[in-house]
UniProtKB/TrEMBL annotation, chain A:
Keywords, alphabetical: Hydrolase, Pyrimidine biosynthesis, Zinc
Dihydroorotase catalytic domain sequence ranges: 51-236
Name of the protein in question: Dihydroorotase
Keyword match Hydrolase: yes
Pfam families (UniProt xref): Amidohydro_3, DHOase
Organism: Cognatishimia activa
GO terms for biological process, alphabetical: purine nucleobase catabolic process; pyrimidine nucleotide biosynthetic process
From TrEMBL, chain B:
Protein name per its UniProtKB record: Aspartate carbamoyltransferase
An MF annotation (GO) of this entry: aspartate carbamoyltransferase activity
Lineage start: Bacteria, Pseudomonadati, Pseudomonadota, Alphaproteobacteria, Rhodobacterales
Coiled-coil positions: none
Record GO cellular component, one term: cytosol
NCBIfam families recorded: asp_carb_tr, PRK00856.1
Length: 425, 318
């Protein structure tokens, strides 16, 4: 079974090119990329009509609320949302209820994911039992069961002895650990970033320095243990020099940021709009611009949706009490297109952070448009305008900060291993 | 009619003209309150519900008296003891109350922004009686009325707001109001009790008391809010009193005719010397309580007028 995409703007993050051409897929893999490919006999030809063709997004840190809170999001709804958003691989979080911290739960989740989700799902597992920061999980068994990385989500392991042992053990297993750089003392009960806005609104704030302190601690731990480490979200300018030094020192460290921290700032919270409450909280405009520069330069490696479904009840509360998090599987791409349309990033730079880098970091062979790579692809129209209606989202929860906003960039079709999992109506 | 608000959620939303209009009307209510027969019919037929999700004796009593003097049917709900404990959300409580057709809802809540949230869900006038660390608009208005009556004006004054600014909604509302009326506002207190980057909000910040209240026309003391503190903000109350507590000696740095204010309830011997607080030549603390009733009457009267007008303009369904 062959599939030939013609007349496509090929967004190649490996070669950093954006060229018109064709791409041939056979048996779920890319077998040729170029400007003059003849259609093999029996091949289905898809005319992309000049739309972009890019490697599907690999999204590190998606929360699917199974087990425990299926009323917020299931593998089925998350999978459909991902497909509609051009995400071909969801790297799922273990911060469920209960946490995914043993091989049995992980196997259950994997089975559910395979049954229900049309896109690839690769699960992460907890680093410590119950994400409580006291005892490490069965890292070896969990790896055997398919855990691709280990993280306690936004629970920081505060006991440095426990953390250093877990990291040392993880290093021996060759496991990737994903940390949440944040000083837990400073950030305790914070709802926004401290500063002028927090002071005016009378909301408890956290200094941006808490992120830098958390990162400094984690970097010391990497130096001590030699672990392979990825910071889930770097969101403040103050943390960047430390990250840069750690990379220059040759530590095995990469870092991500969230789409919300690249496209929104603290002032968007305005009159206590809880759909803008995320963790870590939205930052200043200066921080936002610094994050964009860091993605462009490659200092920040990945961009994630940090998809966190919350039902209406968890959000319709006073700001301090409201749950943090936003759904973003379907808005990741159009929101990221703002950076391209503002000429802050090129499309190949964007897909380096959305697809290539996350895949590479996780040891997946997707995320690229090269021969032999799986045909996980997204076709999108970068200019198509629309107004986001949150009730049309496929996610079960509708907590998006982009409701009613004008956006540009629509997914036309999404393919996983050469099979269409989404087509625009 | 200059007052155009549907709710009184904060000073931030008010135009200086609206503040003046409200204070002018409050002046009239001060006169009414000093008569033997203290009654008006401004709120006749209207229902006022006081919802206090946080303990309050003074503010609640002040709103209750204000409503009763204007002829409203006033009901107090002690929310701390009620359904909130049974897990009902704020929105559900609001919807339930809304179904009873109140006209004026007076709300105090421990979380910043909670009163705004509630106001979005009901169709009556909402008065913020204090939300978390955000705003306490009627307190700022009563302080403004006290200052205006005592100093003869509400502009070009040096006003020092001293003490626990970070936990204080009174300080925020006052800072905004006094700024809007073109006064020079200074915040004085230990840096641990100052909100971050507050110096960028048009005020001067001092951590030395003598320097901060130098030549002040008004010295406004704040209560040290021990119940809102979740850690050591100050080393001890006695050191706090020594450095930041207002006594006659520190007050000597202010102007000779400077007045002393405090929103109450006072911690005597912590932020203010007991004798100074009772000194009728300097302290206007009792006047503040009196002005409180008048200002709340004026606020409810104006909101009720707007409410009635809005209802009249609505097409009646036949």
């Amino acid at each position: 079974m062959s599939l030939l995409f013609t007349n496509a703007r090929l967004i190649d993050p490996e070669n950093q090119t954006d060229t018109l051409g064709s791409l041939l897929v056979k048996d779920g893999k890319i077998i040729a990329v170029g400007d003059n490919i003849a259609a093999p006999e029996g091949a289905e030809v898809i005319d992309c009509q000049g739309h972009c063709l890019a490697p599907g997004i690999v999204d590190i840190g998606v929360k699917v609320c199974e087990p425990g809170e299926r009323h917020k999001e299931s593998y089925k709804t998350a999978g459909q949302a991902a497909a509609a958003g051009g995400i071909t691989t969801m790297v799922t979080r273990p911060d469920t209820t209960p946490a995914i911290d043993n091989p049995e739960t992980l196997e259950f989740v994997t089975r559910r994911a395979n049954e229900a989700a049309p896109v690839n799902v690769v699960p992460m597992a907890a680093l410590t039992k119950g994400r409580a920061g006291k005892e490490m999980t069965e890292i070896g068994f969990l790896q055997d069961a398919g855990a691709i990385a280990f993280t306690d989500g936004d629970n920081v392991v505060t006991d440095n002895k426990v953390f250093s042992r877990a990291l040392t053990y993880a290093r021996a297993m060759g496991a990737l650990v994903i940390g949440h750089p944040q000083d837990p003392g400073l950030s305790k009960s914070a709802a926004v970033t401290s500063g002028k806005f927090a002071s005016l609104r009378g909301l408890p704030g956290v200094s941006p320095m808490a992120e830098r302190m958390g990162l400094d601690r984690d970097i010391a731990m990497i130096e001590m243990t030699g672990v392979k480490y990825h910071a889930d979200q770097i969101t403040t300018a103050r943390a960047l020099p430390a990250l840069e030094r750690a990379k220059a020192n040759g530590f095995d460290i990469t870092a991500g940021t969230s789409i919300h921290h690249l496209t929104l700032n603290e002032l968007d919270v305005a009159d206590y709009r809880t759909f803008f409450k995320v963790k870590p909280p939205l930052r200043s405009e200066d921080d936002r611009l610094a994050m964009i520069d860091a993605v462009k330069s490659g200092l920040i490696d990945t961009i994630s949706s940090m998809h966190t479904p919350q039902d209406e009840e968890s959000k319709r509360l006073p700001y301090e009490e409201a749950a943090a998090g936003a759904v973003a599987l379907e808005t990741l791409m159009p929101a990221a297109m703002r950076l391209v349309l503002n000429e802050q990033l090129t499309l190949p730079e964007l897909f380096r952070a959305l697809s290539l880098n996350p895949a590479t970091r996780l040891g997946l062979d997707s995320g690229r448009l090269s021969e032999g790579a799986p045909a996980d692809l997204v076709v999108f129209d970068p200019d198509a305008p629309f107004v986001l209606d949150r009730f049309k989202l496929k996610s079960k929860s509708k907590n998006t900060p982009f409701d009613g906003q004008k956006m540009q960039g629509k997914v036309v079709a999404t393919y996983v291993a050469g099979a269409a999992v989404y087509r625009r109506d | 009619m200059v007052f155009r608000q549907k709710h009184l959620l904060g000073i931030e939303q008010l135009h200086p003209e609206e503040i003046t209009a409200l204070l002018d009307l409050a002046d009239q209510y001060v006169d009414l309150n000093r008569r033997d027969v203290k009654h008006s019919e401004a709120l006749r037929g209207l229902t006022q519900i006081n919802m206090f999700f946080e303990n309050s004796t003074r503010t609640q009593a002040s709103f209750e008296i204000a409503g009763k003097r204007l002829g409203a049917d006033v009901m107090n709900m002690a929310m701390q003891a009620s359904s909130i404990k049974k897990g009902e959300t704020l929105i559900d409580t609001a919807m339930t109350l809304n179904a009873m057709h109140p006209d004026l809802l007076v709300v105090r809540h421990p979380h910043s922004g909670a009163v705004d949230l509630l106001a979005q869900k009901v169709n009556c006038a909402v008065l913020n009686a204090g939300d978390g660390k955000h705003e306490h608009p009627t307190q700022a208005l009563l302080d403004a009325l006290t200052i205006r009556r005592s100093k003869g004006r509400l502009h070009r004054l040096n006003i020092a707001i001293c003490g626990d600014v970070t936990h204080s909604r009174v300080a925020r509302s006052n800072m905004i109001l006094l700024g809007k009326m073109e006064n020079r506002v200074r915040l004085v207190g230990p840096p641990t009790l100052m909100p971050s980057q507050v110096d960028q909000l048009g005020v001067e910040v001092y951590d030395d008391m003598a320097e901060g209240i130098k030549d002040a026309d008004v010295v406004m003391m704040l209560r040290l809010q021990k119940e809102r503190m979740d850690g050591g903000f100050i080393p001890s109350e006695r050191e706090y009193y020594h450095r930041y507590g207002l006594d006659a000696e520190k007050l000597a740095h202010a102007k000779d005719d400077a007045i002393v204010m405090h929103p109450g309830p006072m911690n005597r011997g912590v932020e203010i010397d007991g004798e100074l607080a009772d000194d009728i030549n300097r302290s206007v603390i009792q006047d503040q309580v009196e002005m409180g009733v008048a200002v709340r009457m004026a606020a409810m009267d104006l909101l009720a007028r707007n409410l009635r007008e809005a209802r009249q303009n609505q097409p009646v369904e036949v």
